[in-house]
Amino acid sequence: MRELEGALRSYAWGSRTAIAELRGLATPSNHPEAELWLGAHPGDPARVITESGSESLLEVLHREPERELGRENLDAFGERLPFLLKLLAAEEPLSLQAHPSAVQADEGFRRENALGVPMESPIRNYKDGSHKPELVVALSRFEALAGFREPTRTVKLLRALAVDELEPYIGLLEGQPDSDGLRALFTTWITLPSTVLGTLLPAVLAGCITYVAHHDAEFVTEIRTALELSEAYPGDAGVLAALLLNRVTLEPGQGLFLAAGNLHAYLHGLAVEIMANSDNVLRGGLTPKHVDVPELLRVLDFVGADIEVLDPAPSSGSGQSGSGQSGSGRYEYVTPAPEFRLTRLEFDSNATDLVVEAGGPRILICTDGAVTATCGADTLDLDRGRAAWIAADEPVVHLTTRTPTAQVFSAVVGR
Ligand SMILES: [Zn+2]
């Protein structure tokens, strides 16, 4: 068990306070801090703290893959850590995006390699051959758009805007209120000639302004979001597309799993995020970056449905030590992703000692309070914002709280 130092990523949409504050550093930070990467992605690996300084987790894995990753993991995923854990702090909305399935990623990566598209090229879609299922768990209230809304409700929303120019598009979806109708409407909007977009979008936004001024009802959050997005990305067809998506608010502790093809945009908030170790993103707008519409349309899942928020109850069974109430303190986020499993450990007077099982590579991050981690002969103080790497061949980790309440996230390989 060694302390792990994350790699800080500065993107324009990041926060100057949220990640720095969580790590106990001065605020505001000099640059917007968007993500802290805790993993072994070749693009920005975390660093393992050693007696003589620090070393890239990627190098640590390469030197002793079997000890660090375990035989089972090497057989299943090759010589790589299959998951990437992050802190994510969105001050401004991220781009509208989706991620490919495993088959699509493999095919796309080979195709772009065969075409000779350079890895650094702005038009490169596939940076690797892996899918990128992802799970986000809110630390603060977290706002997002995710997945297409059930089409009859979208018809109701669009009609509530009372915009004449929208009628043909509403008719299209009303005549076919299913995934084919959503595909047709989304495809039409995202590929509108600029002259048509130039009259439709202002009319829709005028309808949105009237709606939020006179309604405190059903769709006010959705419509307000469209107005906010249009301020950030004026003239972007992604603003229309955003009207088709579920508007989601996660309270702290709630999670959202995004499978392949789910069109989504994170809007605001601080979260823990875990994903397959991939950087494959297909953008659909709300960004100055490359948008490849045909490729996006190939991967999108157009099924319109309510989004499922993960709100785990404390799990019972193994993992509990000490004299606490059986099962309290452990919250498992169950997803179908084989690459990762995320557990939230909540410490209080009922759960002062919790265990992270042995059996594979593990990353822990303390997001509130302070705990002491004991693993064999090693001990490590994990205060808020600090993280640890535990190799596959190391034993169980005992965590003991040093504050009245504390919170730790544990990331392990799924399966
Ligand atoms: Zn994403």
Overview of the molecule:
- With 415 residues, the protein is α+β, with helices and mostly antiparallel strands.
- The chain folds into 3 domains: 2-144 and 250-281, Jelly Rolls (Sandwich); 150-243, Phosphomannose Isomerase, domain 2; 313-412, Jelly Rolls (Sandwich), CATH 2.60.120.10.
- The chain has 12 helices and 23 strands.
- Strands 2, 3, 6, 8, 9, 10, 11, 12 and 14 form a 9-stranded antiparallel sheet that branches. An 8-stranded antiparallel sheet has the order 5-4-1-21-18-23-16-15.
- Helix 7 (167-175) packs antiparallel against helix 8 (179-190) and helix 9 packs across helix 10 (220-232).
- The protein binds zinc ion.
- Zinc ion (ZN) is lined by residues 97, 99, 134, 258, 264.
Write a concise keyword list for the protein shown above.
415 residues, alpha+beta, Jelly Rolls, Phosphomannose Isomerase, domain 2, 3 domains, nine-stranded antiparallel beta sheet, 23 strands, binds zinc ion
